[in-house]
């Protein structure tokens, strides 16, 4: 859990999340899944559980609240065109708007290398529908379904007397959900890298790629860094040091990742995101993401976006993974709430994202 921090208003801040989405599509999934029936997990219930777990709100995303905007392009390799008719997988350069963030509901939280990091992207091919994707750096999601998610958020409830979660409640969640143990252990042993630039970001959920003939191929994917990977520096620190390092890296040179698709094997669980897939599964290098500019969310191009994972183009469809509907519905409700709230300035200000004067002069 991220540490407690204080923002400009002096309010206490705390933990957790995911982020954003459009209404009609999400409501359709919610209705079809029975979320709006009595005694089911609803959007408002999830938002209340996030609030009780320390989500700051007040105009910010209910989760992954601290972030920056990035822009660049995606260049397809053509290798995935045989399994998907999506425009992004053809050999062309596609403009991208994205966002890096920390997976906490606190917009002024102090950067911590162990906090979940996220990469969210909006691919905008010319003359074709867009695609939005939201990825995290843990390799697997330690939640099986909507009830698991609700139980987990409830276990993270902040005790007003201590300002912290109750360790007994957290332990009880683990004991009551033994089927999630393997995923939690996998994530606990992941490599913690030095920053956003050298981290790998995973889709977590499974999707189906649709080919020209209608064939469907189940995949998960990861954005794998081209930059050399270095372990987290225990001596590094500062409230915003991870973002400051990302900003410096992008100003120094464009950052790149390979989009690596993992094709589900015969024994892989496609619709359960808590299940680890086999190490020997087929992979496809679908192309290269290049990010060349960074901006503050105060006026940046990603600020008004929701990175709903169910905004999919022809050639990519959702699997039956129930967490996909959960994420889409939560993003929709989060977006609706923050759209009607007055927002304080971001922790990462426009001035912080500017290139150093010497570099600006050199480029001009």
Task: Please explain how this structure is put together.
- The protein is of the alpha+beta class and 364 residues long.
- The chain has one domain (23-363): Catalase HpII,  Chain A, domain 1 (Beta Barrel).
- Helices cover 23% and strands 22% of the residues.
- It is built from 8 helices and 12 strands.
- The strands form 2 sheets. Strands 1, 2, 3, 4, 7, 8, 9, 10, 11 and 12 form a 10-stranded antiparallel β-sheet that branches.
- Strand 5 (158-159) and strand 6 (164-165) form a beta hairpin.
- The longest helix has 18 residues, at 322-339.
- The chain is globular, with a radius of gyration of 20 Å.
- The chain starts with 22 loop residues before the first helix and ends with a helix.
Helices, strands, pairings?
Elements (H helix, E strand, L loop, with lengths): L22 H10 L10 H10 L13 E11 L16 E10 L14 E7 L7 E6 L9 H10 L2 E2 L4 E2 L1 H10 L4 H8 L12 E2 L4 E4 L5 E10 L15 H12 L2 E9 L19 E13 L20 E3 L3 H18 L17 H7 L1
Antiparallel strand pairs: 1-2, 1-11, 2-3, 3-4, 5-6, 7-9, 8-9, 8-12, 9-10, 10-11
Helix pairs in contact: 1-7, 2-7
């Amino acid at each position: 859990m991220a540490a407690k921090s204080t923002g400009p208003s002096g309010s206490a801040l705390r933990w957790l999340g995911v982020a954003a989405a459009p209404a009609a599509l999400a409501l359709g999934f919610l209705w079809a899944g029975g979320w709006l029936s009595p005694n089911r997990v609803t959007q408002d219930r999830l938002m209340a559980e996030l609030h009780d777990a320390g989500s700051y709100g007040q105009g910010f995303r209910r989760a992954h609240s601290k972030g920056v905007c990035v822009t660049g392009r995606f260049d397809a390799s053509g290798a995935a065109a045989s399994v998907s008719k999506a425009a992004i997988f053809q050999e062309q350069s596609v403009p991208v708007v994205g966002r890096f963030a920390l997976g906490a509901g606190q917009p002024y939280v102090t950067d911590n290398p162990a906090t979940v990091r996220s990469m969210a992207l909006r691919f905008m091919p010319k003359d074709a529908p867009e695609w939005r994707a939201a990825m995290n750096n843990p390799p697997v999601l330690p939640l099986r379904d909507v009830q698991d998610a609700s139980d987990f958020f409830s276990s993270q409830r902040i005790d007003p007397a201590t300002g912290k979660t109750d360790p007994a409640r957290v332990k009880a969640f683990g004991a009551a959900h033994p089927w999630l143990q393997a995923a939690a252990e996998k994530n606990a042993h992941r490599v913690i890298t030095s920053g956003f630039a050298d981290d790998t970001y995973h889709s977590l959920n499974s999707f189906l790629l649709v080919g020209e003939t209608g064939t469907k191929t189940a995949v998960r994917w990861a954005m794998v860094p081209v930059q050399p990977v270095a372990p987290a520096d225990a001596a590094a620190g500062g409230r915003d040091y991870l973002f400051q390092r990302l900003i410096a890296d992008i100003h120094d040179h464009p950052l790149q990742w390979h989009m690596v698709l993992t094709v589900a094997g015969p024994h892989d669980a496609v619709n359960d995101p808590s299940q680890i897939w086999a190490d020997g599964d087929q992979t496809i290098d679908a192309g290269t993401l290049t990010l060349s500019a960074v901006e503050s969310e105060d006026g940046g191009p990603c600020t008004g976006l929701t990175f709903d994972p169910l905004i999919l183009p022809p050639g990519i469809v959702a699997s039956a993974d129930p967490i996909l509907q959960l994420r889409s519905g939560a993003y929709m409700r989060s977006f609706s709430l923050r759209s009607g709230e007055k927002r304080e300035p971001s922790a990462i200000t426009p001035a912080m994202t500017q290139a150093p004067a010497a570099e600006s002069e050199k480029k001009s």
